[in-house]
Amino acid sequence: MKLKGIIFDVDGTMADTEELHRQAFNEAFHEFNLNWHWSKTDYYRLLFISGGKERFKICLEKDKELKSKIIDPHLFIEELHQCKSNHYRKMLSNGHIQLRPGIKRLINEAQDKGLKLGIATSSCLANLKTLINSTLDIDPKEIFNTIISSDNVPDKKPSPIAYQYALAGLGLKPESCVAIEDTQNGNTAALSAGIRTIITTHSYTIDNVFTGASLVTNHLGEAKNTFKTTYGYAYNKSYVDVELLDHIICHHINSSSEFVLPENISNLN
Fold first, then answer.
1. What's the distance, Cα to Cα, between the start and end of the chain in Å?
2. Third-level CATH fold of 5-16+98-250
3. What number is the average pLDDT over the span 153-170?
4. Do residues 187 and 212 make contact, with C-beta atoms less than 8 angstroms apart?
């Protein structure tokens, strides 16, 4: 088997957290008495900017009146983001989220088969810990061999740096790994690090452009909750498992990112 490791994004990939994030942002705005409110349409656009602090900076630049009143913009953004994170983790702790279909199953299978597991996220470690503790009742360090977050890599996706650090932490080459992502920026980041990608879309990313991805589905799937493929070859599989991931990295993608269909594969799922 050529597959040696799987690297997961977190928000939107492991759990459909983006709507909780949006609500937490709005709670923070209310607590700070800001005349800001991010609708679902607003948030869809803002998700093309990786990182909450980065989104705040953009909004603050546009809000000239508010910006003129703030003495220390950096401190303001830090405090606002901390407030938002507190609201978000409270929502997670209250059990307002579950892992997406296939995540727990794939993690368990990968561990059983001795694969290495990594995290490459633009979120912070505290958010990851709360999510994993809330959904799996375990510390993420007991599952993942390396965790790269905004705490140790400030460069956000589509920069490939988080994935490059994840590969270094796993001690693996990019051609032996697969990244599980949900956004256009995440897809670009992983591909730029030389890693094949599986994309699981959701309401905020379903119409993103995933050029170069090996497979695009609505989720990873389960035996009784199979995925729907919008792009790529699923090799007669109805859910993502280790065998499918190994098939994907064993077959060639040429320089134009068009798939070369192996001779023994005739069914496009």
1. 23
2. Rossmann fold (3.40.50)
3. 96
4. yes
| CATH architecture label of 18-93 | Orthogonal Bundle (1.10)
CB 153 within 8 A of CB 165: yes
What Rg value do the Cα atoms of the chain yield, rounded?
19
- Any catalytic annotation for residue 137? no
From start to end of the chain, where are the E strands? 5-8, 116-120, 146-148, 177-181, 196-200, 215-217, 229-232
Active-site residue identified among 11, 16, 241, 246: 11
Kindly indicate the confidence band of residue 268, based on its pLDDT and cuts at 50, 70 and 90: very low
- How far apart are the C-alpha atoms of 115 and 3, rounded to whole Å? 8
Q: Is the link from the previous residue into 158 a cis peptide, with omega within 30 of 0?
A: yes
* Single-letter amino acid, residue 175: E
pLDDT tens readout for residues 185-220:
999 999 999 999 999 999 999 999 999 999 999 999
Q: Give this prediction's pTM.
A: 0.89
Contacts with 118 (C-beta within 8 Å, 6 or more apart), sequence order: 5, 6, 7, 8, 144, 145, 146, 147, 148, 166, 167, 169, 170, 177
Name the residue ranges covered by the structural domains of the chain: 5-16+98-250, 18-93
Question: How many other C-beta atoms are found inside a 10 Å radius of the C-beta of residue 100?
Answer: 21
pLDDT at 262 over 70: no
Residues 6+ apart with CB under 8 A from 191: 197, 212, 213
Is the dihedral angle over the CA atoms 44, 49, 50, 55 positive or is it negative? Answer: negative
Of 12, 46, 94, the C-alpha closest to 36 is 46
